[in-house]
Specification:
The protein is α+β, with helices and mostly antiparallel strands and 490 residues long. The chain is 40% helix and 17% strand. It contains 14 helices and 13 strands.
């Protein structure tokens, strides 16, 4: 982009209005970020988080649809009229056993054993809400037409909600979608970004007996789980290079002298395409049936979620990259830099401090084996998943170290910058119909003859009890650490 065009975009009055709003509400963005951090709620149990996000959006003129697709902590907030219709969607769930005190560069739980944010989904929530409110403010002031749809997506860590939203038609009227996500720097790409995944429970049923006195009377469900594990281990040799699988045994019996009549294993099956992930899953089902036959048990298979690989649209990636370059990386302080370097040293990763440059746009991106439930959206409509610098570079997620910066000024500055990128991108889309037309054209070229279809079983319903017991165990202990002050945007 030429310097003249860049300058024109920077001086557009609607963008100045949005950025002024965000600057004036910087403290409220920080409060929202920190409130969600201390809620630390696991997927499907984000009641405090979703409640606060919904209240803030509703207080500021959005129309709320709660309990979206049967998810008590899912929602869609809408504002505006006409077209285009632009969706913003992100997640706000935490991880188990990752409670970490903010600003402390050693493992230090807020509540021992409790869940906590160790990636930065709390910053996602702050960016989505703040960016949406700033965009609405500018659109109202300058009479810009178009409709915003803000989706709160529960349980991303279990890859659950957005495939249901897409299956149930909530993106049928959407033209463009944007998905902000925390990172260590500004970063966006196009092409295949993340992998497809199928999440399923395999529950083996047998018959209990006294393991010492009469084991021959039992049919050991745990044997079924173990034999399936053996079969899957042998199958790994024959998987395509980019396919993989992981599992945890969620139930293996109660005590050694009772043969388990019920045992359960939870598997993730990954692949570079939806079809590849499904192929691994279909083979796993046969292996499970064989394990049941060998152990004289039966097996019940329940799909929890099934997600397409995340892909990025080139036109939208270019738009976001332009916004990155206009806004630039946050101006980090010496104390923030020192905290980042101390954390990187303690975590044993490359010590390079905080990102002061904007990464080049990646495209076609190198596909990661990790997955995200935004994938279905990205095959339904043109989408950009973009990253903003609210965490420390080089730190691995789902680890105590990734929670250290998330309620500090590093996260606050990064979230403010991310909200500006989101608002700037939205206003460019609403002001320029050519962006929408071009994104749809390149999207059609990118996906070719591949048409999205739901990989979920037709009758599949949300797993409402997921993580319920863990949150019931820790919620009251965590509640004493909630912020006393509530954000108010104005």
């Amino acid at each position: 982009m030429g310097a003249k065009n860049m300058s024109q975009k920077l001086t557009r009055p609607e963008k100045i209005c949005a950025f002024d709003y965000l600057n004036q509400n910087a403290r409220q963005i920080a409060l929202l970020n920190d409130a969600v951090f201390y809620f630390g709620e696991l997927g499907m149990q984000e009641y405090e988080t979703a409640g606060l996000l919904c209240d803030l959006l509703e207080e500021n003129g959005f129309t709320l649809e709660r309990n979206l697709s049967g998810f008590p902590t899912g929602f869609c907030a809408s504002w505006g009229n006409g077209g285009p219709v632009v969706a913003v969607h992100t997640e706000y769930d935490a991880n188990p056993d990752n409670s970490q005190k903010s600003g402390i560069t050693e493992p230090a739980s807020i509540v021992a054993g409790a869940p906590g944010h160790c990636e930065g989904h709390n910053a996602n929530a702050a960016v989505m809400v703040a960016g949406a409110l700033a965009t609405k403010q500018a659109m109202e002031k300058f009479g810009i037409s178009g409709r915003l749809k803000i989706f709160g997506a529960p349980a991303e860590e279990q890859l659950v909600s957005r495939p249901y939203f897409v299956r149930d038609g909530h993106f049928d009227d959407v033209d463009i979608a944007l998905a902000p996500h925390v990172g260590g720097q500004f970063n966006v790409g196009y092409g295949l970004i993340q992998s497809a995944l199928i999440s399923a429970y395999f529950t083996f049923h047998g018959e209990s007996a006294h393991a010492g006195s009469a084991p021959w009377k039992g049919r050991d469900a745990l044997d079924g789980v173990i034999l399936m594990d053996v079969g899957m281990a042998e199958f790994r040799e024959h998987m395509q290079p980019q396919s993989m699988c992981q599992r945890v045994i969620t139930q293996g019996g109660d005590q050694p002298n009772v043969i388990p009549k019920r045992a359960q294993v939870w598997w993730y099956f990954r692949g570079p395409t939806a079809q590849a992930a499904m192929s691994v899953f279909e083979r796993a089902k046969k292996i499970a049936e064989g394990a049941a036959l060998m152990s004289n048990t039966s097996v019940e298979i329940e799909v929890q979620s099934a997600v397409w690989p995340v892909r990025g649209n080139r036109t939208l990636a270019e738009l976001v990259q332009s916004e990155y370059e206009q806004i630039g990386a946050p101006d980090w302080s010496a104390d923030e830099e020192a905290l980042a370097r101390a954390l990187q040293e303690r975590a044993g990763v490359k010590i390079e401090g905080l990102a002061r440059d904007v990464a080049r746009m990646k495209g076609p991106a190198t596909q990661k084996p990790a997955s995200n439930d935004a994938g279905d959206v990205s095959w339904k409509v043109p989408m950009a998943k973009f990253y903003f610098p609210a965490n420390v570079p080089n730190i691995s997620y789902h680890h105590w170290a990734a929670g250290v910066a998330l309620a500090t000024s590093i996260a606050h500055k990064g979230a403010l910058a991310g909200a500006k990128v989101l608002a700037g991108s939205l206003l460019e889309i609403f002001a320029n119909s050519e962006i929408v037309q071009k994104a749809k054209k390149t999207f059609a070229e990118e996906i070719g003859d591949q048409t999205w279809y739901s990989m979920l079983p037709d009758d599949q319903t949300p797993p409402l009890d997921l993580n319920r017991a863990t949150m019931e165990k820790y919620r009251e202990l965590m509640r004493v650490h909630y912020l006393k002050e509530r954000p108010h945007f104005s």
